Amino acid sequence: MNLTKKDLDKAVSENILSLEQSEKLINFLKKQSSTHSKFGLTLMFYYMGGMIAIAAMTLFMNVGWESFGGKGIVFLCLLYALIGLKLTNIFQSKGLSIPAGISGAFVIALTPLAIYGLQHALGIWPDESVYREYHRTIKWHWLYMELGTLVVGAIIAWKYKYPFLIMPITVTLWYLSMDVTVMLNGGDDSWELRKLVSIYSGLLMIVLAACIDIRSHHKGDYSFWMYLFGVIAFWGGISLQSSDSELSKFIYFVINLLMIFVGVIIVRRVFVIFGAIGCSIYIGYLASSIFQDSWLFPIALTLLGLFIIYLGVFWQQNESVITIKARQYLPLKLRELLDFKEI
Predict the structure, then answer these.
(1) How far is CA 268 from CA 224, 230, 273, 318, in A?
(2) Residue 235 burial by CB count (10 A; 0-12/13-18/19+): exposed, middle or buried?
(3) For the segment 309-326, what is each residue's pLDDT rounded down to a tens digit?
(4) Predicted TM-score (pTM) of this structure
């Protein structure tokens, strides 16, 4: 809900608020808005610069760094980490939460490379693989790098408490789930196994994100990145499943509808976006395969679209009544979370 001064003046004129209360509320909202960054050019520069720096030390790390040897890699990582922590503290002292969180995330992202270098320096690296394969392949010995990253991530997140710090931790949890499963399954890293692990790890992250959301929504959006990667993992896993069964494809469509519904209820757009993509994939499949030559299909699809529009109108007119009745059956903590997001 976006309040304007005009809205508050109208509330004063209708004796809902006093003039003094209106002025106090305006001052309060100004202070609150200063602590939350709106999306714009400044925020774009923050995230673009941060993600380029993180990607340079993770996804785009080339074999050129191998020439430094294990000790050299550890030294360079420690140097970069000190710079990252220094920037985090500087930004924190100036009240710049977004760049402070990005700088802290950069330090967390350096951890697997530092552990990789340390293992080489100690002569305990088990094979001929190189660091750049860490983000592309599944191997059991990545576990040391992942567990170390989680420990460092937990310490930095505990100290600085910025939501963006959860991003590298969530990615690492995703990697860890893949590697642990392959290790427990005797080295089998087939695509079928990867898809199943992606589904279940995604569901686990979504549940964990919901728990974090309920417990800490009033402090900050610490669950955003876990929701994002959880939905990507889950949706990607079910979307890559192959089946000749029309029932299975319809169940996929229903799951995506449920994702849209859940996204609307808990006010998380990532569910709505991926659910809508999944529904579009299913409808596209019907159009190109099942009803390819049927003249009735475009008519039925048009009627379906009009019916969905009618549901939207019906929901808009009765949203408050339906919401109040539906929330009576929800746990108290979840009701508090949903009420908080509507403010």
Answers:
(1) 9, 12, 9, 21
(2) buried
(3) 777 677 767 766 766 676
(4) 0.73
